Amino acid sequence: MMSLKGGILSDEDIFDDLMFLSSAATDTSGHLLMFMFTLLGMYPEVQQKIYDEVIQLVGENNILPDDVSMLIYTEAFISESLRLLPVVPVLSRSLDKDINLGHKIIPKGANVVLSLFHLHRSEKYWEDPQKFDPDRFLPENVSKITPYSYLPFSSGPRDCLGKAQAMVMLKISVGSIVRSFQISSKHKSIDEFELMSSLSLKTKHPLDCHFTPRD
């Protein structure tokens, strides 16, 4: 990743950072789309709501970036997918000062790793956390979410630079595919997924997901 020297970035810094962002975005987006299409096959009622939303608001026209703000339920589905299956499952930070937690002090220079996978499934912050429920993220419910309990793109000055672009791409991809195909899956529960993590969260096995063209 890039480093600052006197507040100036070198060409090499910029190139390295762009290459990192490009490779990270491709890897994580691919795995997330696999998860989401499988979830749509597992939850046909959710798939139908997305289909109805796209047909009602966009029709048969191409889904354009200007259209995605209308796809409220589609965004809620994506957000809930990222809650249960965060493709970047951990965040790492190096502290630039001591942090006093009351019962313990984490010293300056320590590396802190936060498990988003466990945070997003914590009973302390989420009602029925193992349940897949996109309604959590509808506008009338989102205010109930505890601040900083949902961090799929991190937060603050070091949050994901590609967040807005990723959400546009995901909504266009999901909406376009659901409008054109009925998706099915033999999986009955997310608990069936044997998960592993390297750069991103993925399964140890192929996911069962089938696409049938709509009439």
* Main beta-sheet annotation: 2 strands, antiparallel
Strand content is: 5-15%
Order of helices and strands: HHHEEEEHHEEEE
Instruction: Provide the helix percentage.
Output: 25-40%
- Write down the overall geometry: globular
Query: How far do the termini sit from each other?
Result: 48 Å
Give the spatial strand order of the biggest sheet: 1-4
Low-confidence spans: pLDDT under 50, at least 5 residues?
1-5
Q: Count every beta strand, where a strand is a DSSP E run of 2 or more residues.
A: 8
Structural class: alpha+beta
Give the integer mean of the pLDDT values.
88
**Rg for CA atoms:** 19 Å
The number of helical elements comes to: 5
Report on the architecture of this protein.
The protein has helices at 11-42, 44-57, 72-84, 116-119, 163-180; strands at residues 90-94, 99-100, 105-106, 111-115, 181-184, 195-197, 201-203, 210-213. By secondary structure, it is of the alpha+beta class. Helix 1 crosses helix 3 and helix 2 runs antiparallel to helix 3. The longest helix is centred in the first third of the chain and has 32 residues, at 11-42. The chain is globular and about 60 Å long. The protein starts with 10 loop residues before the first helix and ends with a strand.
Descriptive labels:
215 residues, alpha+beta, two-stranded antiparallel ribbon, two-stranded antiparallel sheet, 38% helix, 13% strand, globular, Cyt_P450_sf, iron, iron ion binding
